[in-house]
């Protein structure tokens, strides 16, 4: 008899298993507890704490992604600013605001200032071409109901008043600059939000097993058998569940493969790591109050758009710049160097090869980024903070992301996807989330989609409760300005975002 068999514990049975103690599992768990309070839930987390990977506040920028300042969400096509992606993402973030507000009203969440704070969202343009584009973008957005209180500033005095840290030492005569944006943005600590959700989950009876890594998923009739290993003792446990959500970040794809979910055949993952520069100078931190997004470099992935960010973590204001692209074969920050190589299978080799050929500019960009030292990174920062000094900044390792490579028909073979993708089995008994930004910001909208896909037969019964959780459910706020205003005022007050 094997050692693993000897140390195996009795089988547990629950209704729902959530893999990964990050914001996605925490959100889905909260929704299902309200929709079906009688269902038992269990969470497996390979680390010893919640929200230590992508949900950790220093592993992401904390931008409440509502497309207010992210220029890659408003591309220009044939001389026209395309707002479709920006509007879609903004709509989804309004769902987040409503869901969090409802959870606060119900006592599931307690202190909104622990996880969300008002911070200006601004876009930054350098040079005549960028400034002209930014003005066109502003003109396209300023009268849209979802993008309120927008402004455009391209004069030295206005720029310096709003962004003193970005103005000091800047030669305004040598290069034209401008900003556009709104004070209606937010900074979100997804780690704190996750922990509030999980505190409520445990109080409601959810068992959270930290230090337990799920090693295998197999179907047994109408149930899933989840085999997990205690990373400290080596003991294995077997749990049976009717429904499984794989919210394991970069490891989600591998676990869905182990579960033999046919919908992921041909899928692959491309790991992208990154670094931030974090300010250690309190004067700089105090004098900058905005999230300022610029244009991505040629060949850079959208998640590598440079931005100078005000953060509010554990009640303390911070400032960081980045991210700087990097590369690691790990699929999680605390993964292994074998992750990428173990993910290569016969069915996804064409996807990898197709992306290798098509995304040469991305490869070139990552190679150049990896080769940078601290002084090189400081030079990039000086485009935003001209007076930046090395003694005022330190390097921080960002979270690890895995970009989804979807299988595609010949001659492309595979396409690199920048976004968040939901995958589920045909019978809706297992689902997982793949990809990256806007990710955490739209977790409630993503989990709503999961619920609709996997529990479709229950949607009529659950309808009243869903409308209670998200009052604008099934409505397009962009087409219902009165409802948007009502929801905006409600969430502003409940989330304590009024300045």
Task: Provide a quick synopsis of the model.
The protein is α+β, with helices and mostly antiparallel strands.
Features:
499 residues, alpha+beta, FAD/NAD(P)-binding domain, ten-stranded mixed sheet, eight-stranded mixed sheet, 16 helices, 22 strands, 33% helix, globular, disordered N terminus, EC 1.1.5.4, Probable malate:quinone oxidoreductase, FAD/NAD-bd_sf, tricarboxylic acid cycle, oxidoreductase
> Poorly predicted ranges (pLDDT <50, ≥5 residues)?
1-6
Class based on secondary structure composition and strand pairing: alpha+beta
- Distance between the terminal alpha carbons, to the nearest Å? 65 Å
Number of individual domains: 1
Largest sheet data: 10 strands, mixed
Pathway: Carbohydrate metabolism; tricarboxylic acid cycle; oxaloacetate from (S)-malate (quinone route): step 1/1
Catalytic activity: (S)-malate + a quinone = a quinol + oxaloacetate
Pfam families: Mqo
Keywords: FAD, Flavoprotein, Oxidoreductase, Tricarboxylic acid cycle
Report on the structure:
With 499 residues, this protein is α+β, with helices and mostly antiparallel strands. The protein has a single domain (5-481), classed as 3-Layer(bba) Sandwich (FAD/NAD(P)-binding domain), CATH 3.50.50.60. The protein is 33% helix and 26% strand. The protein is built from 16 helices and 22 strands. The protein has helices at residues 3-6, 23-35, 84-105, 127-141, 156-162, 164-167, 190-203, 252-258, 282-287, 339-343, 349-358, 360-370, 374-381, 443-454, 459-469, 481-494, and strands at residues 12-19, 41-45, 76-77, 80-81, 116-118, 121-126, 151-153, 177-182, 186-188, 207-210, 212-220, 223-230, 236-246, 268-279, 291-293, 307-313, 316-326, 393-397, 401-407, 414-417, 420-424, 430-435. Strands 6, 7, 8, 14, 15, 16, 17, 18, 19 and 20 form a ten-stranded mixed sheet that branches. Strands 1, 2, 10, 11, 12, 13, 21 and 22 form an eight-stranded mixed sheet that branches. Strand 3 (76-77) and strand 4 (80-81) form a beta hairpin. Helix 2 (23-35) packs across helix 14 and helix 3 crosses helix 14 (443-454). It is globular and about 70 Å long. Residues 1-6 have low confidence and may be disordered.
């Amino acid at each position: 008899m094997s050692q693993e068999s000897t140390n195996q514990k009795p089988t547990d049975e629950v209704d729902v298993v959530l893999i990964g103690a990050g914001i996605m599992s925490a959100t889905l768990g909260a929704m299902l507890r309200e929709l079906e309070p009688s269902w038992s839930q269990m969470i497996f987390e390979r680390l010893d704490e919640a929200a230590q990977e992508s949900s950790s506040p220093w592993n992401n920028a904390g931008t409440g992604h509502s497309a207010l300042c992210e220029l890659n969400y408003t591309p220009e096509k044939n001389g026209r600013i395309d707002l479709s992606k920006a509007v879609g993402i903004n709509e989804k973030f309004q769902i987040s605001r409503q869901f969090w507000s409802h959870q606060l009203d119900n006592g599931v969440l307690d202190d909104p200032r622990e996880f969300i704070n008002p911070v200006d969202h601004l876009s930054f343009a350098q040079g005549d071409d960028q400034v002209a584009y930014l003005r066109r973008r502003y003109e396209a957005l300023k009268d849209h109901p979802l993008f309120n209180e927008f402004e455009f500033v391209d004069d030295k005095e206005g720029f310096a008043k709003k962004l003193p840290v970005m103005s000091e030492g800047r030669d305004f005569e040598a290069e034209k600059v401008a900003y556009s944006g709104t004070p209606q943005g937010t900074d979100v600590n997804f780690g704190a939000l996750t922990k509030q959700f999980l505190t409520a989950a445990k109080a409601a009876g959810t068992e959270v097993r930290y230090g337990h890594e799920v090693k295998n998923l197999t179907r047994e009739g109408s149930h899933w058998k989840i085999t997990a290993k205690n990373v400290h003792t080596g003991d294995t446990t077997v749990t049976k569940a009717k429904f499984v959500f794989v919210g394991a970040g970069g490891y989600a794809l591998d676990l869905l493969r182990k579960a033999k979910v046919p919908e992921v055949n041909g899928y692959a993952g491309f790991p992208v790591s990154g670094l931030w520069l974090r300010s250690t100078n309190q004067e700089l931190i105090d004098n900058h109050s905005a999230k300022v997004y610029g244009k991505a470099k040629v060949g850079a992935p959208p998640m590598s758009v440079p931005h100078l960010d005000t953060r509010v973590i554990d009640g303390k204001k911070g400032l960081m710049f980045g991210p700087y692209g990097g590369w690691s074969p790990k699929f999680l920050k605390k993964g292994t160097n074998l992750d990428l190589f173990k993910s290569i299978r016969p069915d996804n080799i064409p996807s990898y090869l197709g992306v290798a050929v098509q995304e040469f500019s991305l490869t070139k960009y990552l190679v150049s980024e990896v080769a940078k030292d601290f002084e090189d990174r400081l030079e990039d920062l000086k485009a935003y903070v001209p007076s930046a000094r090395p003694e005022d900044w330190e390097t921080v390792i960002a979270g690890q992301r895995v970009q989804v490579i979807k299988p595609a028909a010949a001659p492309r073979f595979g396409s690199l996807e920048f976004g968040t993708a939901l995958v589920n089995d045909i019978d809706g008994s297992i689902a997982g989330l793949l990809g990256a930004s806007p990710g955490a910001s739209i977790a409630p909208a993503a989990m709503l989609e999961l619920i609709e896909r996997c529990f479709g037969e229950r949607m009529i019964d659950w309808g009243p409760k869903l409308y209670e959780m998200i009052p604008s459910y099934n409505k397009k706020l962009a087409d219902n300005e009165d409802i948007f205003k009502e929801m905006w005022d409600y969430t502003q007050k409940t989330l304590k975002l009024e300045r």
